[in-house]
Write a structure and sequence with these properties.
Elements lengths: L20 H11 L6 H4 L3 H14 L8 H14 L3 H15 L3 H5 L11 H14 L7 H10 L2 H23 L9 H4 L6
């Protein structure tokens, strides 16, 4: 599994560019602190804004993908990529959206659990298949996806999983640490 790293090998920015203040202010208001990845992405503020807008669109209220399903696949990809920060942040979001820690604690062994719906299991299988290198999407999985999602939703789900791979791999490669947001990774309860 993951090994605890002593410190990131690329140092975080102490002072963030003024162009990121709207994001920083929102993070401080919602989480009480600047989120760790912001201190690395801050070296490229325009790129960070693009990434933030991209995830903001994928996480919009009118998404074609249910919020719990989105959180499940994001948490699963985070686990597959061994991203400490993403596991922490996405587990918190999953706990908030599902109303408990039950799915958070079960997602690592989702294929052996009974609490996930067929739709959730299919989305999790797709997240695993897409996160493999190279991606391994079988014909059977494609057919199963089509029973639960239309083509627009499959495209959106694919974009969400691809985005989470980008985020998790960025954070894991730079050893960006967890922030203590969720009990599943920190021992502290989430705000559910």
């Amino acid at each position: 599994m993951m090994t605890k790293k002593s410190s990131p090998w690329v140092k975080p920015l102490e002072k963030l560019p003024a162009s990121l203040w709207p994001i920083v202010t929102m993070q401080q208001k919602h989480f009480g602190a600047v989120l760790n990845p912001t201190r690395w992405w801050g070296r490229f503020p325009y790129l960070f804004w693009l990434v933030a807008l991209f995830v903001g669109f994928l996480e919009r209220r009118r998404s074609g993908i249910d919020a719990v399903v989105r959180s499940l696949v994001m948490t699963r990809v985070s686990q597959q990529c061994c991203c400490e920060f993403c596991i922490d942040a996405n587990s918190l979001r999953l706990a908030e959206r599902s109303g408990s820690m039950e799915k958070v604690l079960a997602v690592a062994n989702w294929s052996e659990e009974t609490l996930f719906t067929a739709k959730e299991q299919t989305a999790l299988a797709y997240a695993d298949a897409m996160t493999a290198t190279p991606p391994q999407i079988s014909d059977a999985l494609k057919e199963e996806l089509k029973t639960h999602f239309d083509e627009k939703a499959i495209t959106e789900l694919t974009a969400l999983i691809a985005f989470q791979n980008l985020s998790a791999r960025f954070n894991a490669a730079l050893d960006i640490p967890a922030q203590g947001l969720c009990v599943s990774t920190t021992g502290k309860p989430p705000n559910v």
